[in-house]
Design a protein that fits this description.
This protein is mainly β. It is built from no helices and 13 strands. The protein has one domain: Sandwich (lipopolysaccharide transport protein A fold).
Length: 147
């Protein structure tokens, strides 16, 4: 198992917020010229209360002074994001930090929270605002019976 810790910087109200992202995988291949890191085999990326799982992740980063900052992550194969009670699955996803932190899911995305389910052709999850934009959506809402 290989572990790499990267920080993610984002501008919010002209302040810089840094939070570590911890990525584990069976193998890691880095390219310092291209500023990429390819993680393969049971990849898990954890940042705060969000965890991203995939078969493979290609991380694009910038280097500043003594730290590396994530710009983008392309995740492929059995993608799953867990944040609290929300679970989103898809064939692939792209995590972007700028200009707005979001994850774009493609390849039969499916989001669930409890028994409620949303599917579509493409799903964009905005992390800061905790809302989603789903294209060609189908929603299944389960009404709970009251006693």
């Amino acid at each position: 198992m290989i572990v790499l810790v990267l920080s993610q910087a984002g501008a919010e109200d002209k302040k810089t917020i840094k939070e570590a992202t911890v990525i584990t995988a069976q193998t890691l291949t880095t390219d310092s010229k291209a500023k990429t890191a390819l993680f393969e085999g049971s990849v898990v990326a954890k940042k705060g209360d969000m965890t991203l799982f995939a078969d493979k992740m290609l991380v694009y980063y910038t280097e500043e002074k003594s730290s590396s900052n994530i710009k983008k992550i392309d995740a492929d194969g059995n993608v799953k994001v867990v944040k609290g009670e929300k679970v989103i699955t898809s064939a692939s996803a792209t995590y972007l930090t700028e200009p707005q932190e979001k994850i774009i899911f493609t390849g039969t995305p499916r989001a669930s929270e409890g028994e409620n389910v949303v599917t579509g052709s493409r799903m964009t999850y905005f992390l800061k605002d905790d809302h989603s934009l789903v294209e060609n959506s189908k929603v299944i809402l389960v009404n709970k019976k009251q006693d």
